Amino acid sequence: MSADNETEQLLVGIFPEAGVYAVGGSVRDGVLADLGRPQAHQPDHDYLITGVPMQTILERLGAAGHVEVVGASFGVIKFTRHDRTVDIALPRRERSTGPHHRDFEIESGPDIPLDEDLARRDFRINMMARDLRSGDVLDPYGGRSDLEQSRLDTLRPEAFEEDPLRILRGAQFAARFELTPTGPALATMRAAAEGVATVAPERIADELNKLLTLASRPSRGVEILRETGALAYVMPELLEGWEVEQNQFHAYTVYYHSLHTVDAAPPDLVIRLAALLHDVGKPRTKEGPHFYGHQQVGETMAREMLTRLRFAGEVIDRVCLLIRNHMYSTADVISDAGIRRFIKRVRPSNLGALFTLRRADIVASGLPRHDRGENERFEERVDTMLRDHPAFDISHLAIGGADVIAVMIELGMAAPGFKGDERVGAALRSCLEEVLDDPARNERDSLLRHARRYLGTVGPHDGTNG
Predict the structure, then answer these.
(1) How is residue 40 annotated by DSSP?
(2) 420 in a domain, yes or no?
(3) What is the pTM of this model?
């Protein structure tokens, strides 16, 4: 028995007098599976209990596992049993009192009708519940019909004004489930688009993450954001590529090339962010048919955008590395030393992502490419280099910082007890350049001789640690 089935049987057993329902994404995805469109991503399981007061729920759940009230005024409980945590709530009704998603007057209670709780949700496809006893899906607002018709609609026009994040949720739902927003839904999204500027960046980033990692074609969602006007408040820099024509090697404008690239990339957050933003610097560097330095400009722009949206620092760094390096040359005339310096610059752990980005970029050009296998040969040369295990980093050298310090003391450049300064790192970097030219030089005595020669060209240190 799965953990979810065990939880559901437990809830039915300890609340015999109550209505016990699954709500939210698990119900929607169950209906999609019934329609032959199963989803790989499994959403969190949320449950609703009606007809029993909060105190009774807490007492009975507390006897079966660990309970934590996370929204006392909302009637939301986190219930953990056997390392499995689910959300359990009382039905609630809410009324907007301001422009922000927290500006709601919320009432929860066991006697609020289930239909009223479902009606407050964002889209009809999420306004369904499954009765845990009978297994029946309760669908008072036509969510299944919307899924059958590949339609995205809402029950209340004011839903987007109450929480403008729902515009982004609509975009990612439409892309993930291949739905088309109705005309009225799009109109109300447009009317509320300015409110996206009030949404916390972390919430926006979370929806973008889902769009980029869960949708087979994220471009559908990006286009909805553009059509509704919300993109101007999320990633306005992308819009700079609108109607910016490219050279003869591209069939699309900068904007649409970016969308085709993100669709051609695999559902990995870093790669798809890089795919979406890899040419974001082109409009600011356009000179006729050329975009000189757009990768450096694009890296700066992407870092500012992703920092503004509060993406994790590691994600930002990896995305920016891919953007900065996506114009790498694959010419057959590149020397072996040039290949090794390329690997050093990109770092082995990033090569797969960079090559994947290049392939998506080529597909998204919209035109056949006649490189006669140049990209494939370049990747094969890189793979061969990696299998040979040459040094691509200072840590791979046959000598280390202590060896350089010993040489400096030997040469009278430092006193005994010297702990090192920037000259040590500079000497090791010079040694690495030697090894990149010829891996055979990664031998202790050879590198010590080179370090002596290099340090002989370095002037006395003017700091305090020498």
Answers:
(1) S
(2) yes
(3) 0.90
